[in-house]
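Summary for the lay section of the report: proteins are chains of building blocks that fold into shapes. Here we show the chain for TBC1 domain family member 7 and then a coded description of the shape we predicted for it.
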Amino acid sequence: MCCLPAVFILRRRRQLFYLQNFSEIEFLKKEMGTDERNFRSSYYEKVGCHSVEEKKSLNKLLQDNIRNHAKLKQFCLSYTVPSTTRSLLWNIILGVMPLHKNSTEYIMEQRKAVYDDLLRAVTVMQFISATTPKSKVLLSMWQLEQNRLLYSNNEKNDLDNNFVEIVKVLLQIFENDVETYWLAKEFYSCTREIAQECVKLKELSQNLLRKEDANLCNHLENLAVFSSNDLLDKWYVTGFAGVISESTLVRVWDKICGGSRKIVVFIFLELAKVLKGSALKCHTRQEFKTLVEQIKDQDAVIVNKAIKNWQNNKQHSEITVH
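The coded shape description reads as follows.
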């Protein structure tokens, strides 16, 4: 039996490779129809090239004269937001900037005028000085806008504390103080929706953890982690501000900006599971709080895994606890 020449064998393998990939491409084309752009996106996704097409899609959405609010929110929910476009994306989604691109300059001028007026007012009223921390400055401006400034010193409440926690994170992420103030206000409004659902979110946290680790769940129940109002409520309503490092936390806040409320549940679940060994040794709720708030997750391992688990749990509607 004669052996086929090596050149012929290599040529045949190359032909088979081309035929295999050609068939795959033709199959994808049939799936996607005649839309060449959708075909490319599907094929790139199939071979693992996500980022380029995602960035192109986002850039197109942002460049539209009238931005599609629903699609921008969906992008936040579905993909990792590029750091270079996060500021613009959040501003549009949260309503700081208008959907109509041509109105952006005028609207931002009005935003700055309001900011300057508030800053001037709290300065003249001597509620702030040149040495006042910027987070306290923005808090005073926010309190004035809500007609609570004159009473705030005597009535320090959770609303103010939560707002400050959010401001501190945003000050580490963005450089423009005007945008930071407006983003803080609007993001705080998003967290108020989480606050309204805290009972259901804690119930969901408890149920999911019990399914995954009954022993850990029982221990945290004994510490009153789920029944108290001073722990999970605080973490959920502030989106884990002060718990997770700012560079990592933005990935969680991307999802909150996109409309997710239950993402905070999966962040907690992952934190609890990662810290299980130490958590089981905690004798008080305060010890558990201290343990969790020391982790920071600088490398985003916990957050990335939590986001993946959240995406895999589509059977849970976003608000209603089943």
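Put simply, here is one thing we learned. Residues 1-10, 12-49 have pLDDT under 50 and may be disordered.
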